C-alpha cells in the first residue's frame, strides 16, 4: 500500500483509528489540531459534515465555501465555512487534488429515485445515527463535502459521479480553526462508482496543534 503513514511517521498523534466500511464516525477536533482522512484502499467516498463545537447550530455551509473560494471543488487551501462565515477547517494537505461538495450524500429515498432500489443503508442513515449520539437530528444534515469523490461539472451543467480512482493512501489534512465537531459517513453506496462497488475502510488520525 503506497504512501500510507504509520503513526510513527507523524508527530503528535492523539488519536488513530480505522473506520470500518459502511460505518459513521465523529469526534470533536480541537482548535489547531489536524484531522487526517486516509482512503486506505482507494476509491472510497467519505461524506463529511462539521459543526462549531461551541454552537452546533452553526454548521458547514457549502454555499459560503463554494462562493468564497469561487470554486466548486474542495482542494488544498480551501476553507470550510459555517453558516455564520466562521472558518471551521482549512485543507492544508491534499494528495488527490479535488473533492466534491455539490452532490450531497446518498440516502434511501435518493437511491429509490435514482436507481429504483430500496436500500436500508446510506450516508444519510449513517449521519442520523452518529448525530443522535450528540443529541442532534436530521435538521443538522446539510449538503456535505464528499472527500475522495469526483463529480466533474460539464459546460452544459451536467454532472455525475465519475469513476476516477482515488489511489490507495490518498489523504487530506484538515486543520481545525476553532473547536469543531466532525461527523463522517464511510459511504456504503453500491449503486454508483463512488466506492468502486466495494466499500472499504478508511483511517482517521488526529494530531495535536
Ligand atoms: Zn454515501
From TrEMBL:
Q: Which residues belong to any copy of the DUF1989 domain?
A: 18-181
Q: Pfam families, from UniProt?
A: DUF1989
Name of the protein? DUF1989 domain-containing protein
Please report the organism this UniProt entry assigns to the protein.
Answer: Terrihabitans rhizophilus
Q: What is the lineage of its organism?
A: Bacteria, Pseudomonadati, Pseudomonadota, Alphaproteobacteria, Hyphomicrobiales
Amino acid at each position: 500500500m503506497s504512501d500510507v503513514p504509520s503513526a510513527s511517521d507523524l508527530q503528535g498523534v492523539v488519536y488513530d483509528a480505522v473506520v470500518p466500511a459502511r460505518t459513521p464516525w465523529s469526534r470533536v477536533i480541537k482548535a489547531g489540531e489536524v484531522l487526517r482522512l486516509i482512503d486506505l484502499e482507494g476509491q472510497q467516498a467519505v461524506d463529511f459534515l462539521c459543526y462549531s463545537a461551541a454552537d452546533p447550530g452553526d454548521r458547514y455551509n457549502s454555499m459560503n465555501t463554494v462562493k468564497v473560494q469561487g470554486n466548486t471543488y474542495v482542494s488544498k487551501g480551501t476553507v470550510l465555512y459555517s453558516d455564520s462565515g466562521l472558518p471551521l477547517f482549512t485543507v492544508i494537505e491534499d494528495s488527490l487534488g479535488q473533492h466534491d461538495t455539490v452532490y450531497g450524500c446518498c440516502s434511501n429515498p435518493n437511491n429509490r429515485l435514482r436507481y429504483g432500489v430500496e436500500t436500508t443503508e446510506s450516508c444519510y442513515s449513517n449521519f442520523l445515527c452518529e448525530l443522535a449520539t450528540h443529541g442532534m437530528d436530521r435538521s443538522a444534515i446539510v449538503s456535505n463535502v464528499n472527500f475522495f469523490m469526483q463529480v466533474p461539472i460539464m459546460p452544459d451543467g451536467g454532472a455525475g459521479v465519475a469513476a476516477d480512482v482515488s489511489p490507495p493512501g490518498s489523504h487530506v489534512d484538515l486543520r481545525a480553526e476553532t473547536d469543531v465537531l466532525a461527523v463522517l459517513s464511510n459511504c456504503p453506496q453500491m449503486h454508483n462508482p463512488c466506492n468502486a462497488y466495494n466499500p472499504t475502510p478508511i483511517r482517521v488520525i488526529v494530531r495535536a496543534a
